[in-house]
């Protein structure tokens, strides 16, 4: 496990060299918000990181419901029974194992590791623009239909889930990077992912924090290049 701190955000990385899976602890004045829960065995490392910071985890916010982002959810809820769980209204269906599409959604299969036996019931269903402490929720569909990103308005640090990856080279979700192809393979709608990436870029983030790969400081140039490459790739297809 590796921990990297930028501004008020701690990146907690499991398998950092081989198959990095990230979750994030966002420090508020009196508590921590955990963004994503990584893999089932990640519970101990997450709890240790919070103890080392010296503040309790009061909220768990989920970018999307893929198994490598919700893996430790049930275990953490058992350890922290009073913690508040938040996920987007659309993503709740996937959390429950339901991959059926909703009216108006592109007729493409929902891909990736969909959980089958999550027992935890979220407390709050998020919508675009909702506030969670210092974070603002940003609807970012593409990787999944209901994915959310979260902007720390204090520093413009952006936790983007799998809307981008940096492992294997910065890329928009769905645009294949053969050195690390897994986020692309798990993407539902490449066109929607590009639209979401452009929206996230419009916030001019100071830091890009993703589900897979290192933090990227001053990421606008890289995000721009990744979007341009994704558009070219989509046009070829």
Structural account:
- The chain has 237 residues and is α/β, with parallel strands linked by helices.
- It has one domain (2-236): Ribonuclease Z/Hydroxyacylglutathione hydrolase-like (Metallo-beta-lactamase, Chain A), CATH 3.60.15.10.
- The chain is built from 7 helices and 15 strands.
- It has a 7-stranded mixed β-sheet, covered by helices on one side.
- Helix 6 packs antiparallel against helix 7 (220-236).
- The chain is globular, with a radius of gyration of 16 Å.
- The termini are far apart.
- The mean pLDDT is 97.
Query: CATH H level: which superfamily?
Result: Ribonuclease Z/Hydroxyacylglutathione hydrolase-like
CATH class: Alpha Beta
Strand residues, percent: 15-25%
Instruction: Give the C-alpha Rg.
Output: 16 Å
Helix/sheet category: alpha/beta
Average residue pLDDT = 97
What ranges have pLDDT less than 50 throughout 5 or more consecutive residues? none
Shape: globular
List keywords for this structure.
237 residues, alpha/beta, Metallo-beta-lactamase, Chain A, seven-stranded mixed β-sheet, six-stranded mixed β-sheet
Short description:
Helix content is 25%, strand content 25%. It is α/β, with parallel strands linked by helices and 237 residues long. The mean pLDDT is 97.
SSE layout:
Elements (H helix, E strand, L loop, with lengths): L1 E5 L2 E6 L6 E7 L4 E4 L7 H11 L3 E5 L5 H4 L2 H7 L4 E5 L2 H5 L28 E3 L4 E2 L2 E5 L8 E5 L4 E3 L4 E2 L5 E2 L9 H4 L4 H12 L5 E3 L6 E2 L2 H17 L1
Helix pairs in contact: 6-7
């Amino acid at each position: 496990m590796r921990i990297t701190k930028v501004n008020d955000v701690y990146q907690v990385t499991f398998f950092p060299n081989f198959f990095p899976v990230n979750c994030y602890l966002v420090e508020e004045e009196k508590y921590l918000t955990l963004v994503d829960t990584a893999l089932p065995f990640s519970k101990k490392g997450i709890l240790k990181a919070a103890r080392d910071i010296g503040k309790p985890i009061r909220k768990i916010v989920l970018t999307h419901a893929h198994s490598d982002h919700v893996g430790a959810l049930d275990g953490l809820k058992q350890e922290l029974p009073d913690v508040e769980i938040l996920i987007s209204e659309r993503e709740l269906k996937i959390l429950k194992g339901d991959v059926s599409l909703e009216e108006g959604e592109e007729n493409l299969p929902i891909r990736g590791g969909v959980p089958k036996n999550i027992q935890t019931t979220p407390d709050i269903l998020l919508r675009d623009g909702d506030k969670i402490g210092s974070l603002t929720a940003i609807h970012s569909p593409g990787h999944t239909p209901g994915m959310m990103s979260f902007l720390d308005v204090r520093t413009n640090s952006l936790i983007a889930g799998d809307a981008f990856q940096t492992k294997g080279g910065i890329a928009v979700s769905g645009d294949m990077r053969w050195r690390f192809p897994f986020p692309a393979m798990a993407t539902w709608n490449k066109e929607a992912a590009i639209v979401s990436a452009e929206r996230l870029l419009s916030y001019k983030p100071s830091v890009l924090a993703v589900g897979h790969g290192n933090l990227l400081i001053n990421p606008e140039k890289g995000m721009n290049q990744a979007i341009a490459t994704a558009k070219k790739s989509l046009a070829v297809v």
